[in-house]
Amino acid sequence: MRTPLLLSTLFVILISCDQKCKTLPEAENLRKDIDVQNFDSEILKLQDSSDVIQWLDKEKLFADKFLQQYGYADQQVLYRQMLGIKDDPYLDSLRFQTNKLFESQSAWVNDLEMLFAYTKYYFPNFFIPKVGTVITGFNTDLFYDDSLLVISLDYFATQNTTYKPDIPQYMMDRYYPQSIAAITGLLISSEYNEINELDQSLLAEMIYYGKAYYFLQKVLPCVADTTLLGYSTEELAQIERIKSTAWSYILEKEHLFNSEHRIVNKYVGERPYIAEIGPECPGRIGRWFGLQMVKNYAKKHPEMSLSQIMAMPDAKQMFQESKYKP
Questions:
Q1: For the chain, what is the radius of gyration of the CA atoms?
Q2: Phi then psi for 48, rounded to 5 degrees?
Q3: What is the SS3 assignment for 152?
Q4: Where are the alpha helices (DSSP H) in 25-74?
Q5: Residue 211: DSSP 8-state
Q6: CA separation (Å) from 128 to 65, 117, 219, 222, 249?
Q7: Which candidate, 148, 64, 296, places its Cα nearest to that of 304?
Q8: pLDDT tens digits along 154-191
């Protein structure tokens, strides 16, 4: 079963400054300032149910998509939850610590502007969503659909907060302000990443993630691979050292075309390292292999646009034509 690019798996994020920034003038011309709406501060001002009803009517997109207001059998439950936010001492402390960090952080907005501009350049029909922020108490990290992006800032301030989300430390370390655009980009990529639903093999998963990360490199050209791929500089160096061993292991075990979820997830799922290969092998190495395959394929087919590459559903064809070998 394909592991979706959902928020809970999102994997992204240490920063490096050794990557050159190659921008495209045509894409840069599409940049627009983003008006980031602070939904959290607006909700805190609501005093009673009448205020809530008026606000939900005004912010119908947020109410319908993020709050899913019509999923409540009793709307009063939603109203009470929204009014109770300002009286929650846990959220109050989390909000204070989160806002303190983000007061000095603005680069993430610039990265979002780049993401939207370059996606629009490569995919002209892309619709730039409304952008807003909330404090959820780690209920979610980021919500995206084709018209709305809601960022739970507390998830991206964990290095500055007393409270932490209930996820492993190695995943938590990837969450900080500069990772917001990369996570958003992964979610956007899934709209264009065509797949063969009948192919559930490890190779298909590799190519799926490979195309997603290739998409990121194109639409966020000024963001380092450490951020886009979710590996530290040391982990990327480890992969370079062990890639031949890891690839040989996959081939010897005949796992490349295996469709068993347990086998597939071993190489593309969330793990701090792949024990079967060795503690020096970072987790998710299958995704990294997929990126190398897609990059090789793109080099051999310079006539193909990003949209054409993302639209290719045949993982086996892409792998064979890439002629990838570590």
A1: 21
A2: -155, 180
A3: strand
A4: 25-28, 39-44, 49-58, 60-61
A5: H
A6: 16, 9, 14, 20, 43
A7: 296
A8: 999 998 899 999 999 999 988 989 999 999 999 999 99
